[in-house]
Amino acid sequence: MLIDFLPILLHVVVAVGFATVVLVLNIALGRAGKRTKIKDTAYECGVIPEPGPQPRFSVKFYLVAMLFILFDIEVVFMYPWAVVYRDYIAQHGMLIFWSMLSFVIILLFGYAYAVKKGALEWGR
Amino acid sequence: MEVALFWIFAALMLGFGAAVIFLKSPVSSALSLVVSFLGLAALFLLLDAFFIGIIQVLVYAGAVMVLFLFIIMLLDLKTERARKINLPAMIGGLMVVVGFVALLVKLLPSFDIAKPALARPVNDVASVGMLLFSDYNLPFQVIGVLLLVATVGVVLLSRKELK
Amino acid sequence: MIVPYALEISVVCVGIFLLMVDAFLKTDKTTIAWTGVVVLLAIFGLTFALGPMPKGVIPEAFYVLDPTALFFKRFLLLATVLTLILSIDYSPVYQKFVPAAVPQAGLGEFFTLPVFACAGMMFMVSANDFIMIFVALELVTITFYVLVASMRKNQGSLEAGVKYLILGALSTGFLVYGITWLYGITGYTSLDGIQSVLPRVPEQYQPSVLFGLGLVLVALGFKVAAVPFQFWVPDVYQGAPTPVTAYLSVASKAAGFVVLLRVLEPFVTTPTFQVKVFGILTILAAVTLILGNLAAMSQQNLKRLLAYSSIAHAGYLLVAVASLSAPGAKVAIGFYLGGYLLMTFLAFLVLLNVAKVSGGDDIRDFNGLGKRSPVLALALLISMLSLAGLPFTIGFLGKFFIFEAALASGQYVLVVLGAITVACGFYYYLKVVMAMYWQPPAPSATNIQVSPFGQFLIALLVLAIIIFGIFPQPILGALTHL
Predict the structure, then answer these.
(1) Which chain B residue lies closest to A102 (C-alpha atoms)?
(2) What is the three-class DSSP state of C190?
(3) Between these two residues, C212 and A53, which has the higher pLDDT value?
(4) How large is the ipTM?
(5) Are B143 and C113 an interchain contact pair (Cβ–Cβ within 8 Å)?
(6) CA–CA separation, C157 vs C163, rounded Å?
(7) Count of A–C CB contacts within 8 Å?
(8) How far is A53 from chain C (nearest CA, A)?
(9) Nearest by CB: C23 against A106, A116, A124
(10) In angstroms, rounded to a whole number, what is the distance separating the alpha carbons of residues C437 and C363?
(11) Is residue C248 predicted with pLDDT exceeding 70?
(12) Is the CATH number 1.20.120.1200 carried by domain B2-122?
């Protein structure tokens, strides 16, 4: 059972390993002199830099994130669908196909609405 | 092997769960929450609860991302960092924890830990799928309409200027 | 063979169609609403072609099409049609509070979302399984969250939206938690299954069943605005766009009561739980009656007053629910809600037209309405008298049937309480009437013009209130099989 998860373990090892290697190389090769707190501050023509106010983020990020969540939840239903698809057809017939088709079509209308209303346009 | 993995993931989950609370920056807290959820998902997988495990990753990863954006947009990160510890809230929280632990101590002996909960492993994703697309087909379609309405709501409520 | 849920499917299709028209065609947005009105009326006609179906005919265990469901589907379709017509009247006000890049932006959604809510509520009144109840209820509440908050440039609407969202999510939590308890003990989510198991629940698990039912009652109490779960009502009703307030107070409440009846059915027919459940319901009804009526007395804003009156009416309906052992109780609930639909929409129709000109919905904005617009004043007078329960109006008969059922089941305390609170009701409803006829109009007040269609609708509602108040047989006839 657990051996099925070997690819995921390899994935994790590669991801963590790559990040570690890059960071270590960066420190080993990149550090030239001694770092101090003063040296790390940005140079502002001799003036001690003041941290600016909280940057304002556009509500557009939020809109996209919410749309992402909604379509993410759609995928949640597709996961068991994909797993049982063949067995289901062998046992009960094609209902599973039509069922998912109508579900996706309903959501497609939502997508068409969002596109047409400019929810995914970044510019304006 | 499974026991070792359980301890690793449980430690991961609890450690990052504690980090969610103790880290000063909300952004680090949110990221720790993601790792904590991943540990929890791994625990579910170890219990053969594959469906819940995958949902944990799929939904919570997305939900936490939105939370993350919310934090960046709405909270003033600096005042959050400077926040002092609130003593009454600490005591209240501790009391909840103590009560919960007391409940666990009282309940746990009644479970037979040596006996596995299920006689044989169940393919839970397949059972969910089989039920969802046969008996529960009607509620499933209603969920589709629900998601459609939610899409409309998202656009209506958060687009800067409506078209 | 026709699918039993063809009605809901067609309503959903209407909603999707209107949404696509809104997105892709550059038509005048009010045509969307009018199309919705016409098609929903056609579906209303179709309900008469579709008789109630016995349980065995319908393959899905989740869905019943009994006379109750059919009656309330018609009720909900009519309520949606009235909401759409109110929304058209309200659209100039709505547009002022929506951030628009093009003219009429946001109106399409404002007209389309009620249709989806209607489909959800039609599923709700047919739901016979907790899974279906939950899914349908969520469809309805999510639609309402959006509708309530949709006037984004209006602080009140946003505040109402946030309050409704947070308290609504909390009540959903209670519902799901209650369902898990009931499922854990009975092993069923279907109400039929629960009914079959309940008599055999061992005594040690009975408190857990009651706990689960209690949690479900909290959630449903929230939906029907029963005290002590009514905190959200005044603020949400006041802040929401007026047509949405009317829709929320009529349709959402009715659907909530139908679900309440269905959920209670297994419990009140099982002898071991009967007494306790009726006890809980009696307390709920008494508290709701007292608090709703007393709090309404001090209100200065008509929308807020109608919100508290909506709580009070939930109290009268709960009296009928607590008297379910009497044979006439279900008919009384159906009749009362039918009357409530007519009176409430009439009140909101007048309120909307007056507020459009006066710019506010405080009671003092109605000062001298008798002189400024005799027609509107007369309509509001009849609506208020009927809400108060004056004889020869539908409101009187509604209360009469409920008290009759309560007497038949021996709920004497509730009847006495009901009679006292009706007297309180006369005080606050007549306060509005006094303002209209005895107070001089503000110097700046102008006369109010109502569109011809609005006048027609007002006349229709007034006539219905009086005719059914004297001659209730048509509605009772539709209810006999409940």
Answers:
(1) B141
(2) strand
(3) C212
(4) 0.92
(5) no
(6) 10
(7) 15
(8) 26
(9) A116
(10) 12
(11) yes
(12) yes
